[in-house]
Amino acid sequence: MMRYKCLLLIGPALVLFVGSASAQVYSSPVRVTNTPAQWVPTRDTDHPARSPFRKNFQLTIQGNNSAGDILTVPQGFRLVIETVTASVEVPAGEKVKLFFTSTVTSNGTPVASTTYIPAFFQGTFGGNDTFYTDQPMRVYVDPSGFTLSMSVVKTTANGTGFADITISGYLVPLP
Is this prediction's pTM over 0.90? Predict the structure, then answer.
């Protein structure tokens, strides 16, 4: 019985103590005191070194393939590719394959790799079959003296195809 009396006395005191430690809630908004001529400094505190990157290019597919060196990563930076978007038109009945070759440095040695990108048939428009892709990814490309090369291959050498490709991501400084 004595134990329950102690709880009855300590319980309300504990509620008062915990209740008084809660955070204050303010109803007034935060005000920025810069003049209209001054910009408000902001930064990405999670990823302060990221610099946005976007490159659009077109390839003409003569014969059954087309390849193009599309960019060289600047010295001192690594390119992180996050999305590849493409629209490819080829003569009706053709199929396509998209891929790019990139280089990343591993243990001080440049290593080339190929990344394949799925392209999905959308329909036949004006006598051409159209394929689209919007592929999220994370591919690292280093400034190892090699260029990023994009390739589009179609099933036959008949006719001409066209590809409109956009690569987006960001550049980060190398350590």
Answer: no
